[in-house]
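Problem: given the chain below (905 residues), write out its structure.
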Amino acid sequence: MRFSALCRLSRGAAAPLAGRKGTAPLQAGSPATRRGTASTWGRWEKQQAGGGGSCSARGSVAGEIIQSSKKVLASLQKGHPTFMPTLAIVQASDEDLVQEINQNFAKEIGLHVIHICLPQGSSEDEIVGEILRLNEDPTVHGVALHLSENAYSTKILNAVKPEKDVDGVSDVNLGRLVRGDTYNCSVSPTASAVMELLEKIAVKTIDGKKVLLVGTCGPLEASLQCLLQRKGAMTMSCQWKTQQLQSKLHQADVVVVGSTKPKEIPVSWIRPGTTIVSCYPDFLSGEHGYGQDLKYSNQSAVEAVGPLAIAVRMQNMVKTSERWIRSQQYREWNLHCLKLQPLSPVPSDIEISRGQSPKAVDVLAKEIGLLADEIEIYGQTKAKVRLSLLERLKDQPDGKYVLVAGITPTPLGEGKSTVTIGLVQALTAHLNVNSFACLRQPSQGPTFGVKGGAAGGGYAQVIPMEEFNLHLTGDIHAITAANNLLAAAIDARILHESTQSDKALYNRLVPVVNSVREFSSIQLARLKAQFDIAVASEIMAILALTTSLADMKERLGKMVVANDKNGQPVTAEDLGVTGALAVLMKDAIKPTLMQTLEGTPVFVHAGPFANIAHGNSSVLADKIALKLVGEGGFVVTEAGFGADIGMEKFFNIKCRASGLVPSVVVLVATVRALKMHGGGPNVTAGAPLKKEYTEENLQLVADGCCNLQKQIQIAQLFGVPVVVALNVFKTDSHAEVDLVCEIAKQSGAFDAVPCNHWSAGGRGAVELAQAVRKAASQENSFKYLYNLELPIIEKIRIIAQKVYGAEDIELSPEAQSQISRYSKQGFGNLPICMAKTHLSLSHQPERKGVPTGFILPISDVRASIGAGFIYPLVGTMSTMPGLPTRPCFYDIDLDPDTEQVKGLF
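Solution.
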């Protein structure tokens, strides 16, 4: 055995010897285990008996460390019964005895060990690659190295993640040691063993002693220098071939030897009475060279760290496990908000966005308690968050769950996204309350066709605005690719079935393999299919409603994409494309982390429309955010369009899928929208407003508040308190604002608050934030609008009558036929997702206010089995909306010199 392995004992670990590049768990019945700790320890004791030193004392110290570590680990596992700390050893050398001691000590303590054997000639990159793999393995908590002496490079040592570095060889851990932060670092086991020997066995105190380090190097030398000097020793360091070695040896009270003494150096250079501590592994094999001479000719005490250092390594592994458990627990936020300096007049949204310097996303992630391995960074301001966080924080209580909805919108938009952002900026940046905004990703239709952006607005928006509104992290592109793959699979299947005989098709679909012809698992699953309808792609809806990767894969497989020649349904699973779809969506399932103008966190994930889909961001983003904000925090999410559409679907569809219970509804209104509902003239986006909207008109406001009252009543159907947020514009008079707030409170709102976040940022929504906090502390009697066991027709009727205010519903023959088929197929217990215009409570966009006396026509009924809902089409509602006559992409351009986007909102 050479010096390198024990000099770097903090790089090794316990495990059986496997003969391949890979992992092998320690087996209870292996030969090494049967020999047991006692035999290994006994052999070492016999070797040391002739070499001088206090063998029994060393043994008792190591034994104490082993027993103490065993107790600590047992205590840890009482609180975390499923936790099994795992130490991985990467070996590329033939040093087996150290491995045997490692594995026996680990077994005694209760540590699990895996052992990766690499060929001795493995390159630096091969070793680093294996280390990086272990760094990313969440089941591995510690990593140690056993390499040949010349293999330890800076690149290899620093490849080990500091938090998994049980031997303290990385620059990060050495730096923490030098700074005195021993609580959060691992210290070289060999260096620690030297200190144990000196303090408990060899000398009474090392304070004031002269200690010479000979033949030490790298992390061991640095650790020893630091530990010895901290105890008051005067240290010197040199190599064996130093010219003044004899003089330095004569001056030393203690000599710490890091490598074998060359034969040409006489032992007489070491003065009698000197304490010698050996760090190299020849003492394990009995080849200690000069120990006898030192003992008998110079009367010097010779001590070897031996298995004591390995015992310390195992102690380090237990400490690493303690730190790992602490790291998995909920972390208090340490958020540094960004300062805003609002200008008047308020600049354009894009100017405001570009005028703020966002934090690096990894900094933001750390501030809100995310671990480094829980984020995947996209550029400087976006990151995907891994779903593993949900498992880590599964015992963490959720925060309060707030939904932002609105009155029936006008073509100008009422500012739900802006209210959402302003509210979380107020909560976190001004009231010091943890909060998260969860928004949908805007699709290219609204971005390039109508709105030009959906990141909020003014001083309450998500930044950078361009990145939010354009590609983001590619989720929509992944959905597009998955849809295209599914379409290609359908086309290919139709082609092959129509151009081949049954026999030829069968031979190709079910080939003979090893003389056996078998159906695949996917083909067998086809025999159990119970679907009876072809639907449009549901992948976006599935992304928004899924709760895990496994759940998403199952939902994708359930999608019905066609009918066969016999009228039977064909699913994505039937086509054998489920796995491929899941692969395309594996990154899209992770929410994207961004920030507001004031540096508070935002999740952007999924983007289903509210009029033809369920109109809410993802369940996963909400679930993760609720864990991150903690018990006293708030997650604010937005539902599309009016409360009659987005909010109703949020409660009846999304909350059923997630199991989450909402705390408060924030209902957004504007004076100008209420005037339109009160009989004001039509408005057109981009056209100047008529005087009814720019001058005070209390009668129009009072008349239009009927729509606000109706939306409050809709929210009350679900038993959730309502806070009205009046999004104030500069043309609104104080009397108009006061009138709206008064009517809202009289109509049952918990509170009604004017908001100025668009022009003032979070400071302009502080009153709203305070009202939301008070409302969230009230008793909550949340309930769904209908029971899922009711017939499909009855569920549609309940929504039409109680939410929209219709007298009744009228089903077309096609709709009636479809409902009958779904009921027979067993889909009658799914929730309802109404596809209806967002511009009116009724099916007629021109009818504002609160229409009455109408019959709601149901022209068709479809099913999204993968997403998990039935969706009736109301009237002439199109599920494939197109661009307007003059899309806003006419005004969007790219500056080829600066690469800046122009004309985007």
